[in-house]
Amino acid sequence: MRVMVVWCPDWSVVAGLAEARRSRQLPAAVLAAGAVEVCNGPARDSGVRRGQRKRDAQARCPELLLLEAGPERDARHFEPVLAAVEELRPGVSPMRPGLLAVRAPGRYFGGEEHAAALVAQTLVDAGVWDCRIGVADDVFTAEQAARTAAVQAAVVVPPGGSADFLRGLPVRVLESDGQAGREVASLVGRLGLGTLGDLAGLPLASVQDRFGRYGADLWHRVRGAGRSVLGERTPPPDLDVEVVFEPPLESVEAVCFSVRTTAERLVSGLASRQLVATEVRVEAESEGVVVSSRAWLHPRCFTARDLVDRVHWQLQGEGGSLRSRHDAGVVRAPVERVRFVPETVEPAAAHAEALWGGGSDELVERGVARVQAMIGFESVLRPVLQGGRSPAERQASVPWGERPTGLRPLDRPWPTRVPGPPPVRVFSPPRVAEVVDGTGHPVAVSERGAVSADPRRFRFGAALLVAAPGSAGVPQPGGRAGAQEGLWALEDTPQVVARTTGRPQVGAGAHPPSGAPGAPGRPGERPWQPVASWAGPWPVDEEWWVETAPADGSRAARFQVVGVDGRAWLLRWSTAGWTLEAGYD
Amino acid sequence: MPALDPSRPVLDQLRERVAAMEGGPAREAVATHAGLSDLLQLRAGATYSVDAASVGLALAAEASRAGEWVGFAGWADFGAEAAAELGVDLTRTVLVPEPGEHWLEVTAALVDVLRVVVLRPPASVDARSAGVLDARLRTRSSVLVVHGDWPRCDARLSLEESRWSGPDHGSGRLRARRARLAVRRGTAPPARAEVWFPGIDAPLVGVDERSDRAARASRPRGPVLEPVGPRGPRGPAGPVGVRGPGGLVVEEAGACG
């Protein structure tokens, strides 16, 4: 069996520089335990050597860029190289990051030299400039051949010529074979044996006695009789499916109708491997360009119908989540190809339906999918709990049909969380509020946590605080503001009427009923409500560790305030002013 | 399908279910919170209006606890933790915080598949739109709870005279609220009951079950479910913690108006 070894020298440095987005020409070294483990060409030119201490290396090359050792990073960056070689010849065996072996492709590419040149060209195209290739009868010889090759060149050891090739190599080459190899090279060198041929000339028994099993193995290898066992990796099965439309389709409905069989093919293809997909990427191409790509998560597993729904939402939802029915159904560019890429597959047994039940849940899922088709995928949510301190932090919502990810754990103590029963209404983002004392001055909290005066009156502004830019789910500012305004009107009027009959109007809303004694107030200015009782302040001591300081000032404290109408609110004071965080309605 | 309620005759429940499946006048009973059951029994196909978010949550909670799906439409400020504490199973909860201009269609679609839908309409509702939903409700045997005003309701629930115990001029914290829950059906005199809402160690309880705790409240109150006559001007009972008579309130509101 002929073996081809591809060697990318100083791979740790190459990968480290690529990760740090630095130039390849910089002198750089990877340190392990305070000593240079790997260095690159420019560093070697300055006199940096493997095994040097960090201080010595920096003395010889002051501009030396020091990189952390990262075996995982090296392997991650080596994966594209493996994939590139796999394209040409399956059965790649990764030996370690920077070194791979593969059965030498022979006649198909017109000889081993041609094959090596093709591999080198493929790798250079993939962005790996420094690759060297060796071809020989066994892995050890091929690796040594690759190490003698020039950049992007190949050394081919003819069949049966391994022993001859190895004989002239110095024992130093064993230093690349790990700690054991270094010990052998050092000792053999001190014994006066300069080449691998000298080592091969020793009796096997002596080598085995002195160097043990590794030595015996090495002895066989340097005689060109090493065993070539390649741990070839099996490429993962190709589960992607796609469908091509000729001519391209312009309507979402037509696309969805046509992808149905393809979606069924994906699901049945997975099922034949006892798998189900829980995350699928849907890609739509137009004129050879992927115009729409999105990964979809499913709480259980995707069926063909779910996939068709996702295609529908994805193509229709490109413009925004809220849309009228008239402009729906037309895609922006004709779709000529739709591809399903299963990103996460799980064993089907983990998602099997129970023998009894499940029918009504399926009905609900269909109904909710209809709502999603109406107003957009992100508009239908599932609330989830998570850990946190403020009420808004303690909950989250995920789009219906997706799995929650990255939630804070609930079982932690979360010191300084808001005490008392959880609020029924949580305003996120918070609303502006005003709280004043008896003289009309805003209530504040001192640095020692003392309240400046008893809060006597409070009121809330209708305006929302501006949400963080880029927050999703705010498709149409006009529509949202309208809804919010309506919500305010609803919140204030009926409740005031219902609760305070027989008593004077205290918390009159924006549109108080006619005849109410409460003054309506100017537009945009809401009436005050007296404080019945209050609790607090509880200082808010969080997020000071975040580099970007919180926007609302450096100090903050929370209060629970009960109005005379019996409703309680959670207010937050900060140096920037008061906000309303939650309501105990 | 939820389990049968052991406290009622099995045959009746099965008859209700068969009637619901046949599309007949579905008046199937829907699980109602124990603290409210003296006042109100939710019926499929009916509309209830509430004036406090917590009452809306409580109406949905028991059905959710019984294994039904519930939905909340128009609740941009949904308090998930409070809902979970009241008994709403969040894994069987659909939340549409901002249904936008299609809120009526969204609600109708939710009513199709969910047992209890709690709606906060973003705008005032005319009788025609409400009628569309009512028809849908009856065929689908769902319950619609509206937080706000609604043209035709089977019952209107309102919280009256809620008093929080706990905070006291800076010290303490919110602990429990004792409120009077009034249920009005048509023009009949309202039925009232005192409830702890949320209770000290349970989210919602009637006062009678908590007579021992009631003694600890700042202002213990008498009988529990008091079917009082037509509502007259109630006593001087100001909320806890208000210093001064009610007249102060007027001055405050007028001063800054």
Structure characterization notes:
The complex is a heterodimer of chains A (585) and B (257). Chain A is of the alpha+beta class. Chain A has four domains: 3-159, MutS, DNA mismatch repair protein, domain I; 163-222, 5' to 3' exonuclease, C-terminal subdomain (DNA polymerase, domain 1, Orthogonal Bundle), CATH 1.10.150; 241-377, DNA polymerase, Y-family, little finger domain (Dna Ligase, domain 1), CATH 3.30.1490; 422-584, no CATH class. Chain A has 14 helices and 20 strands. Chain A has helices spanning 11-20, 41-45, 54-60, 71-88, 112-125, 139-148, 162-167, 178-190, 196-201, 204-222, 252-272, 304-316, 359-375, 477-499, and strands spanning 3-7, 28-32, 35-39, 65-68, 93-96, 99-103, 132-136, 154-156, 241-251, 275-286, 289-297, 330-347, 381-385, 395-399, 425-436, 457-464, 529-539, 556-563, 568-574, 577-584. Chain A has a six-stranded antiparallel beta barrel. In chain A, helix 1 crosses helix 4 and helix 11 runs antiparallel to helix 12. Mean pLDDT of chain A is 79; it is low at 319-328 and 465-524. Chain B is of the alpha/beta class. Chain B has helices at residues 10-21, 53-65, 80-86, 103-113, 127-140, 211-214, 247-256; strands at 47-50, 70-73, 93-96, 116-119, 143-147, 155-165, 176-184, 191-196, 205-206, 225-226. In chain B, helix 4 packs parallel to helix 5 (127-140). Chain B has seven helices and ten strands. Classes of the chains: A alpha+beta (585), B alpha/beta (257). At the A-B interface, helix 13, strand 13, strand 14, strand 15 and helix 14 of A face helix 2, helix 3, strand 3, helix 4 and strand 6 of B.
How large a portion of the residues of chain B is in β-strands, by DSSP E? Answer: 15-25%
- Here the CATH topology of the largest domain in chain B equals Rossmann fold
- Can you tell me the number of structural domains of chain B? 2
| CATH homologous superfamily annotation of the largest domain in chain B | P-loop containing nucleotide triphosphate hydrolases
Number of helices of chain B: 7
List the uncertain runs of chain B: 209-257
Taking the sheet with the most strands of chain B, its summary is:
10 strands, mixed
Mean pLDDT of chain A: 79
Shape, principal axes of CA atoms of chain B: globular
